Amino acid sequence: MTTVSVVAEVMDRLAPLSSQMEWDNSGLLVGDPAGEVTKILVALDATLEVIGEAEELGAEMIVTHHPVIFHPVKRFLAGDPAYEAAVRGMAVYSAHTCYDMAEGGVNTALADALGLKERVPLWEERPGEAGSRRLGLAGELPCPMSRGELAAWAEEALGLPQGYVRHLPHAGPEVIRRLAVCGGAGGDFLGEAKKAGCGAYLTGEVRRHEYLEAERLGLLLLDGGHFATEVIAMPGLRGQLAAALPGVEVVLSRQEG
Questions:
Q1: Which tens digits make up the pLDDT trace of 126-177?
Q2: 86 sits in which H/E element
Q3: What angle do CA 46, 225, 93 make, to 5 degrees?
Q4: Which of 77, 140, 191, 209 has its CA 20 to 30 A from that of 216?
Q5: CATH H superfamily, domain 106-231
Q6: How many helices (H) and strands (E) does the chain have?
Q7: Phi and psi of 128, rounded to 5°?
């Protein structure tokens, strides 16, 4: 029998909880570790719609990227996703920054989609015996691209409509050969992208001052949005879980389509 705790152990191997950032809240956040699991729903967020979908499917467990409980709370009421999962007897496991850092995780999926070669970590920290923590990736594009060509390439890779990826059209080099990527809100790593020898950097939730700082550094900063730069990894997570748990049905949420 596969239990919630077994699934949690698999997730900890795929994305070790020891690698999560100090402010994060990854892990088993809702549910009974001893509960049986025959079906898992994978989603970016445990929204009410996702919980309803899991109930329709008969899934006992939801695995997400974003934590269903992030900040400390003082009450759980009807309508709160964590409460609604609990009253339905569902477990929720969330792998947030640990899946950003994992080999085969968010940033691997993002780099794969953009065809990056000869990759190196964008940011790396060695906290001790637990091993290094790595966030983002930098690598060579499949071929040199102009600013407009790179923005269009990113839109195609992320399944976004034309004109969706925001950028300053005259920032950065005219021809770009090397790109850095970081899923989600990665505006803090502009300096790392520059140090990695990149002409452009793709992330999400870019603020105006970050565009201006990127322009000062000579970088083309591309904003693909928080959702698009992370949801791209959810099919891979579904596949990883399915391979590790052959007796469990693992389904990708229709909310991610």
A1: 655 556 789 999 999 999 999 999 999 999 999 999 999 999 988 999 999 9
A2: helix 81-87
A3: 20
A4: 140
A5: NIF3 (NGG1p interacting factor 3)-like (3.40.1390.30)
A6: 10, 10
A7: 145, -150
- Domain extents in the chain: 4-99+233-256, 106-231
Strand order in the sheet with 91-94: 27-30, 91-94, 61-64, 39-43, 249-252
**Sheet architecture: strand order including 133-146:** 117-125, 133-146, 175-185, 200-204, 220-223
Q: Which fold has domain 4-99+233-256?
A: 3.40.1390
Q: What is the pLDDT of residues 171-210, one digit of tens each?
A: 999 999 999 999 999 999 999 999 999 999 999 999 999 9
Q: Do the domains at 4-99+233-256 and 106-231 have one common CATH topology?
A: yes
Kindly state the tokens that stand for 15. Answer: 């994305």
